[in-house]
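During the second half of the funding period, the structural biology subgroup turned its attention to how the target accommodates small molecules. The most pressing case was nicotinamide-adenine-dinucleotide, which had performed well in the primary screen but for which no bound structure existed. We therefore specified the complex as follows and requested a full 3D prediction, including the ligand pose.
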Amino acid sequence: MSDSLAKAREVVRGARSLVALTGAGISAESGIPTFRDAMTGLWARFRPEDLATPEAFRRDPATVWSWYAARRALAAAASPNAGHRALAELETACAARAAGFMLVTQNVDGLHHASGSRNVVELHGNIRRVKCFEQGHPAASWDPDAAPPRCAVCGSMLRPDVVWFGEMLPAGALDAAMHAAARCDVLLSVGTSGLVEPAASLPFAALEAGAVVIEVNAEATPLTPHATFALRGPAGTILPRLAE
Ligand code: NAD
């Protein structure tokens, strides 16, 4: 075990209040591509910024619906990996010694809940849910052959219940995450490129408040030079050792 992994593990063990921020990287080992990896094959000619917006949906609802339908199918077929499970176990361990724990995720795949995490704030919604474009009516079922299907209540187009670029985050989710980040003593930033705001600001809010920030990522990010510990490698390998 590397020196910094051993030191980071001691910090995690002693945390009184821990926040874990996760991004697409933690689900990569469950077979769910990050945005960068998702834009291959059929989707190589698109950029996520050109699909994940209300304007894109208005312009070309069939393409946006189909892209999300493919991602929804992937999420439904995926299982949590060792990284998700380690965070669920960390929450249990924190509860056992009366330490605080909050998991803040940018992911929309629902795999943290599936692995048993309980105190989860989903900043960007959940791809497994569907709502209507005009009024937000939730939809439990829809015509599988339509792209996009229509709302049974008001007839407007159905869309995934995720936060698109340029949209507001769910009420209360960002406040809860910011509040926890500014008060925790340890923040783990896992598998996020740190390029999407406002989630990218959470580790910096924690650093500013004096917390230890531990980054777990396969690559360097804008956070890396600022993190107290930067652990390089797959989350599914590092998190179980960090949370042991
Ligand atoms: P991102 O795609 O911008 O970055 C992924 C990060 O994960 C990169 O820094 C990469 O180096 C790292 N990474 C890749 N594989 C890893 C592994 N095995 N272990 C550790 N790190 C690994 O993702 P982001 O920062 O979450 O931001 C993109 C946006 O895309 C978010 O808003 C999110 O909602 C959305 N998104 C979600 C999912 C999902 O729900 N699984 C998937 C793709 C995109």
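Two results from this model are relevant to the next phase. The two ends are 12 Å apart (CA to CA). Residues 23-25, 27-29, 32, 34-36, 106-109, 124, 191-193, 195-196, 216-219, 221, 234-235 surround nicotinamide-adenine-dinucleotide (CB under 6 Å).
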